[in-house]
Amino acid sequence: MEINMSDTMKTVSIARKIQRPTSRQFIDLLFDDFIEFHGDRYYGDDGAIVGGIASFEGQPVTVIGIQKGHTLDENVACNFGQPNPEGYRKALRLMKQAEKFHRPVITLVNTAGAYCGIGAEERGQGEAIARNLMEMSRLRTPIISIFLGEGGSGGALALAVADTVWMLEHGMYSVLSPEGFASILWRDSSRVEEAAELMKMTADHLLKNHVIDRKFTESPNGLEKDMPYTTDQIRAALEQTLPELMQLPTDELLQKRYERFRQYGEFTE
């Protein structure tokens, strides 16, 4: 029996597809000479965060992505794309290194949210996210964030305090999942579709409300079947935007980043 879904719920379903390309697949298509770095120098390595240095059209860049898997084993290895504190600290370590050498930072976001297990809380999950927000707000090198699929709460925001934020057509960004919204607000998880509509979480809603700055379309055949359809758009945008951001004086770059986030407050429908 066919189940009719709203456009928003269709986007949620597509963003969560297990076949949806991962951050590492985007890195391999968009960048050259990627060298992955590991560990946060405090506790350990986190498979949910993949990051390192690479080259984009001859420009050295730092790339950091939240990694999901296509199989059960892959998802267990990367904790289903839910970073622990050491993952966010690894990301921050790479961002501070990028700042030192004035490399632009490109983050790829695809997570239902930060991991909320006991160990993560014991190791300071909240502090790790908050520190990333603070440090990214004043990082003295350009930052571009691209939402590939899910963007859940602080777990996504911890890699999205950027000079410009982009999103794929079937991406989403919200304070929590629509299931969580329905359960908390109405104590009724069956109202998930209503919750999704109210949350204005899709690329079109977010673009209209200036939460994101650009949307990239996906192939009608599906992103997983035709990645170049979308990555060619991203490459063209990076070719245009990276030089513009790199040429800005640092103080002006930081002021524009500050103003970008200070504009939030009044949203349209």
The portion of residues assigned to helices is: 40-55%
Strand neighbour order, sheet with most strands: 1-2-3-4-5-6-7
The total beta strand count reads: 7
The main β sheet shows up as: 7 strands, mixed
Task: Report the uncertain regions.
Answer: none
Please state the average pLDDT score.
93
**Element order: H for helix, E for strand:** HHEEEHHEHHEHEHHHEHH
**Which class do the helix and strand fractions yield?**
alpha/beta
Compact description:
By secondary structure, the protein is α/β, with parallel strands linked by helices.
Structural write-up:
There is one protein chain. By secondary structure, this protein is an alpha/beta fold. The chain is about 45% helix and about 15% strand. It contains 12 helices and 7 strands. The chain has helices at about 5-15, 25-30, 70-75, 85-100, 120, 125-135, 155, 180-185, 190-200, 205-210, 225-245, 250-260; strands at about 30-35, 50-55, 60-65, 105-110, 145-150, 165-170, 215. It has a 7-stranded mixed beta sheet with strand order 1-2-3-4-5-6-7, with helices on both faces. A hairpin with a 2-residue loop joins strand 2 (about 50-55) and strand 3 (about 60-65). It is globular. It starts with 6 loop residues before the first helix and ends in a 7-residue tail after the last helix. The model has no long low-confidence stretch (mean pLDDT about 95).
